[in-house]
Amino acid sequence: MAEPRDDMTPFEAVTFFFDAVADQVGLDDQTHAVLAGTYREIRVQIALRRDNGSVETLYGYRVQHNGARGPYKGGVRYHPHADLEEVRALAALMTWKTALVDVPFGGAKGGISVDPTSLSMTERERMTRRFMGQVSYIVGVNRDIMAPDMNTNAQTMAWMMDAYGQRVGHTPAIVTGKPVALGGSLGREAATGRGVVMVLDELMRDDNRQPSEQTLAIQGFGNVGSWTARLASEQGYRIVAVSDVGGAITSSAGLDIEHLVAHARESGSVVDFPGSEPLDPDELLTLDVDVLIPAALGEVITKSNADRVRARYIIEAANNPTTPVADRMLADAGVTIVPDILANAGGVTVSYFEWTQNIQQFSWDESRVNDELGRHMRSAYRQVRDYADAQGCDLRHSAFAIAVQRVADAAHLRGYV
Ligand code: NAD
């Protein structure tokens, strides 16, 4: 097997994990070339008029990686580090993720390179509408469907849906993760965190571990991190540390997550939560806990800190949080990693339910959404675990092998290769 390099870009890292299973899956060279590349990549210029009348030139991206199994699907993030290379990596991950949880989508991702904290609400709205206008020629209900990601949310999706609707008529299914009042699905907001906890529960059950005896550290307290924390604490897990962009906090007795959510909502950060102690944010990743859950940025577990990770399990709620070199070091150290394409697939699974409900003009109650989510997540987990046990490989290798096989089969059946 090839050795990973230290300085891999995000797309090279995802390609490394893909390449690692190509032989096992029996990909011929032509199929390998098709699945390794992206189908379409666009960069659009967004001339944003600021509230003070000046115009700032921003750039946005949409990458469609592979559509063999269905319309392209993936979120849009607003972040200063969002660039074509990162978006390309995240688009590829979406292809493998949708295949793994067996929802009929391909993979895509989008982003705007911007510091969203520098924008007023009206500037965000103008930027979002401009971006949707620029990419509207390549998206569509049966072509490419967007969703929230870092620093985007239900309100962002509402503006996108409205901007698209002005061009082609009312089209709720053009985005998922919308407000429920506009056709969003009940349960979508919590879905990624719920899926994370479902997978964690299955893993603990397999390994005969009691939730009440497990300590968790969670990096990131946005949509995914906060819902993971809430639902895990409801299941009895003890959350001893969390962080966000403002800093990190810890409490060995366990944080009161319900009150922490209210504190973070009111103050804008988890820091200074009564009853907690401040923690160096970098130390959160190397705390002596049972389970570490990165739920913020990519590339946070690297060669420089992997040897200090003390958690027995890592559940990748964030996309691409572990570099290939760190992945290898952690595997050698016996750490079990649940890969992003399994751990955080709950979001796109409920996005699929939302899209389905919009097309049928029918809505499901929340218990149906959560039951169906559980069915997809548990089935995917079981397949990944069984394949890993049978082949003697780790969970990432297993997840990629299953996903790549499905996409290759679809590509062959359609006659792509
Ligand atoms: P979000 O914008 O709601 O939250 C991001 C959180 O990360 C915030 O709490 C922010 O303060 C924190 N953060 C940012 N920089 C940080 C840093 N340097 N250190 C610690 N914390 C930091 O975003 P989200 O939707 O929760 O996405 C988080 C991750 O989950 C991303 O990797 C995203 O791709 C992935 N993901 C999201 C979804 C979804 O449905 N939203 C689905 C699958 C995967």
Notes on the structure:
- With 417 residues, this protein is of the alpha/beta class.
- Among the domains are: 40-175, Rossmann fold (3-Layer(aba) Sandwich), CATH 3.40.50; 191-343, 3-Layer(aba) Sandwich (Rossmann fold).
- 46% of the residues lie in helices and 17% in strands.
- The protein is built from 14 helices and twelve strands.
- It has helices at 10-25, 29-36, 84-100, 121-135, 154-168, 188-206, 223-234, 257-267, 281-284, 324-332, 340-343, 346-360, 366-391, 395-414, and strands spanning 40-49, 55-66, 72-79, 107-113, 144-148, 215-219, 238-244, 247-250, 277-279, 291-294, 313-315, 336-338.
- It has a seven-stranded mixed sheet, sandwiched between helices.
- Helix 3 links the parallel strand 3 and strand 4 (107-113).
- Helix 6 (188-206) packs across helix 12.
- The radius of gyration is 20 Å and the shape is globular.
- The mean pLDDT is 97.
- The structure holds nicotinamide-adenine-dinucleotide (NAD).
